[in-house]
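If you are new to this repository, start here. Below is one unmodified record pulled from the training split, so you can see the exact layout before writing a loader.
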Amino acid sequence: MLSKVRVGAAGVLVALGIVVASCTAGGAEQAATTATDAPSTTISIPPNDGLLRNHLGYVFPEAPEATITGELAPQALTALDDLWETLATSIDNRAILDIGDSGDGRLTWLLADVLRFVRSATTREAIVTAWSTLTAVDITLDPVFGRSEWQSITDHLIAWDLPAHPE
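And here is the target side for that same chain:
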């Protein structure tokens, strides 16, 4: 009986050796093929040209002029009042466009805040239009814009370190 166990164990060891040998040979062959067929990897480093870029390489344009101190203009205050009055039930897109026409770049932060929470395509379009009017920037050129208008606009405001409107 002991001899049968030894023969059985020897057979299992031989079979295991064959499996390991075949796996190792195929693995080495496959590894060699993979190593030679793999595409070369290059690392893209943005140029050191002093320009501020986002993670996709988009160069942020120059920051718009913004009134850093002082009260908001009467036109801007009226547009804000109109927007606040309708905010509970709907959003006054005309008021948003009036904010864009106010000329006060500090209000771009408010537009970004409202954009974050609205879902209406018409209102989102009005906000982007007002923001572009205030900044004179075509935000659609930023590749991030296609994924998130809010992120693109907020990235610009942070990159520019633009001051916010007064409380």
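Two things worth knowing about this chain: The helical segments are 2-37, 74-86, 93-101, 108-117, 121-135, 149-160. The first helix runs from residue 2 to 37.
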